[in-house]
Design a protein that fits this description.
Length: 371
């Protein structure tokens, strides 16, 4: 009986010791081994990075992975594919009864670039969108899709119609923003006393998908923020009845007017491919103070100092360093992949018709100089 009594006590003692030992183990801080030990990482857009953590001392933990403060998973591993360029904070936390382990990664994802090759074109090679405003040449050359495609890889001519009409074009490589140099040249058809200035926007392919779906930055030309310049402006154009009549418009300031027809061009001025009875164009507006209609038979439109399309003879050279964000603040772009050109002035110039930016061609100056 005594032997059995002692055996029971021994077993109880062992159980207590085991339980205490287990409790002590569970109260220990976790010992963690990270699969990626470097805390500062360089990544690429659309390229997956696999993070994981191994608990080496068997402590029970609660795993947490956060991306820029947002919980993404409570598993021991986390796979992240950066959708676009930028700096990301990836934080891992292992929480146990005996303590917490934290590991923070700073992931720097650069903007993807497409390098030039011996076969790269100096001209734009892709038409991503052609959305002109109504105008006297719309629905026929040079105001149709064929004309828009005609400036790819060479010079041609396309018109953008009245204020807000635009074209989006892409290069087959990334145009690098060279320090203290002009980077792009936009050809138009201005005359010394008759310019039809267009605002230029640029975009870098931040998500690397080949589409112009990232952020547009306006090139701040000489008239930026001067009297008559306006950002976040829009105009609604309405299909007339009959379709060959003047095209009514109303802007975001409540002003109204028409894109007036003339006897030289009798087709519909409202783009035939627009679905519905109206459409809205948005952008920035340039001052019309340079237009002089004092002598109706000799109407002039003075060019601006710099920074616009269809503005000066022999082409307008553009410095990517002049790009600004939505708040008007300068942005440092390493390069750009897309360009948008948009008619910048709303003006009816009598027998000459609406002011309309024309584009003859767009080239990367670094490749022009290399010829």
């Amino acid at each position: 009986m005594k032997i059995k009594h002692y055996l029971v006590l021994a077993l109880l003692g062992f159980s207590v010791l085991t339980s205490c030992k287990k409790d002590e183990e569970e109260k220990r801080a976790p010992a963690v081994k990270m699969s990626i030990t470097d805390k500062e990482l360089n990544g690429k857009v659309n390229e997956k990075i696999a993070f994981s953590a191994i608990i080496e001392n068997g402590v029970a933990v609660e795993h947490t992975w956060t991306l820029d403060g947002v919980i993404k998973t409570t598993e021991s591993s986390f796979a992240f594919t950066p959708p676009k360029s930028g700096i990301y904070n990836v934080t891992y936390t292992a929480k146990a009864e005996g303590g917490t382990f934290t590991y923070v990664y700073i992931l720097n994802v650069g903007i993807p670039t497409v390098p030039t090759t011996p076969g790269s074109s100096s001209f734009v090679t892709r038409l991503l969108e052609y959305n002109p405003a109504p105008g006297q040449f719309i629905n026929k050359a040079p105001g149709n899709l064929v004309s828009a495609e005609g400036i790819l890889g060479k010079k041609g001519m396309v018109t953008l119609g009245a204020w807000g009409g635009y074209i989006v074009l892409g290069f087959d490589h990334t145009v690098i923003n060279e320090v203290n140099k002009d980077d792009i040249i936009v050809y138009g058809n201005p005359m010394p006393n008759f310019a039809e200035p267009g605002i230029i926007w640029v975009m870098q392919d931040e998500n690397g998908n080949g589409l112009a779906d990232d952020t547009w930055y306006e090139i701040a030309g000489s008239e930026f923020n001067k009297p008559g310049y306006k950002r976040d402006y829009s105009v609604t154009y309405t299909k007339p009845n009959p379709v060959t009549a003047d095209v009514p418009w109303k802007d975001s300031d409540g002003n109204t007017g028409v894109v007036k027809t003339n006897t030289f061009h009798k087709q519909s001025y409202f783009p035939e491919w627009v679905k519905g009875d109206e459409y809205i164009l948005k952008g920035s507006k340039l001052p019309s103070t340079g237009i002089n209609m004092t002598v109706p038979t000799y109407i002039t439109s003075a060019p601006f100092a710099w920074g616009y399309a269809d503005n000066t003879a022999d082409g307008d050279k553009i410095d990517i360093a002049k790009a600004v964000d939505k708040d008007g603040k300068n942005v440092a772009l390493a390069g750009i992949d897309f360009i948008k050109i948009q008619t910048g002035i709303q003006a009816n110039m009598g027998w000459l018709g609406e002011l309309s930016t024309e584009v003859i061609g767009v080239e990367d100056l670094s490749l022009v100089k290399a010829k």
